[in-house]
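assembly run, all chains below
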Amino acid sequence: MTLSVVGYYEPWWIQIIKAIVIFAVALGILPLVIVYERKLIGRFQNRYGPNRVGPFGLLQPLAEIIKFATKEAFRPSTSVGVLFRLAPVISILTAVAAFALVPFGDVQHIFGTPVGLYGVDVSIGPLYLFAFGAVAFYGIMLGGWSSGSKYSFLGAMRGAAQLISYEVSQGLALVGVIFTAGTLSLTGIVHAQEGMWYVVPQFFGFLVFLIAGFAETNRAPFDLVEADAELVGGYFTEYGGTGWIAYMFAEYLNVLVVSGIVTTVFLGGWLLPFGIHPPGWVDPFVVLAKMFLIVTFFIWVRSTLPRLRYDQLMSFGWKILLPLATLNALVTAVLVVVTH
Amino acid sequence: MSWDPGRDVIEVIRAPKPGPARATFRAFAETLRGLKTTFARIIEGPTTIQYPEEKTPVYPRFRGRHKLHRFEDSDPAHPGLEKCVGCSLCAAACPADCIRVVSAENTPEHRVSAGERYAEVYEINLSRCIFCGYCEVACPFDAITMGHDYEMSAYDRDDLIFTKEMLLAEPLERTPLRREGE
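ok done. output:
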């Protein structure tokens, strides 16, 4: 019954409102995530992190945004103008588009109108995610190439190789879940998790997806794309001001997207354990709390692990993650066939 | 004697390489150990000293800004008089040549210091001072000592020339002193 009212049949004006809300939520959470990351990393290093601007340093991102937005929009003389300006836009747009996929709750009746608390509930959920992940890679690639700088280009090449290698494992890690749930719709996957979250039966899938997620979002220890020590700054070396901050936003938004997808697919989305069924308006907060935990883990790992060498990254991706993901998918497939 | 490469090679003894399964497990375990290590830092809490609000305590023998001293008001022989007699030994001892003393005679009507003469002008140019403490050692009356203040930045070089009145005055804010065993 619930599945029949799902998503994309909503009238156009609800879709527009939802698009605006998603932008507002995404760009509203981002500064919080950034300041949270900086404060937490500070704690991991026995220091406070930003605590001077505003109460508890909460206005720090605002101050930085103002600083970056008022900077001169320069570009290198060797750069390719249109693409140089277009690339960060692609990055941030694909990130927001992927964020639209994260379901924050089931279909709710707001003032009598059924509204799904998600951007879109496409019947090809994970495919949509990977499609936009692939387009996001253009943002990196075009940015690195059009900068006309060898460091940017090196960073972009690394990014290309890394994203392609890890997207395979990431996709395969989800295959197990899709087999078990029998649906590609993300809300459908959440509904299939009533009783048991997929983190338990699909533990290896969860592990692979999370690790590949680190690589997909260019986070430490897989941040070779940026590798500030070797590549100056990776694909956005030549960017400053708004271009740079757009890339940064896209990166943190990708972290949110990955944590949202992990929450949805493996941690039961808005479901709570022990048969607790709170009223519908609690659902988004449950999802946000779970995402918060994953983001914390991301930051924890960033402050712990050193950056991998390039060949280590490649051999880890292809020799360990990919076989593990494949094995996981195979075993799940066999089990699903046997038990049904 | 010709060089024999074989003799200078040091043989490194390594443990046998672990198999793939063991290596994976080991990498996983080491990662968890690393996560534990960083998490312990959170429990430890920050060690930052929030500078303008909190200050780093100094050791008792820390050589900060100079102080000139007076006798106590309760002193029976010379109550409230300056200890400095304007002998200029500190200026002579100063390697950075940053102390300027002009002395004048004490008179019964105008008695400033305990001795025959007193320092009419006593200036320390803190932009030149190297805080060696020789002035303190040279002073026969313990009239000048190195204090504990270390906040001496100014926007103007002229503000760094400290006069006698400034050196005699107690600092507005006391620099915290390190406790025993800290």
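The first strand of chain A starts at residue 107 and ends at 110.

Residues 2-339 of chain A form one domain.

not gonna interpret more than that til we talk
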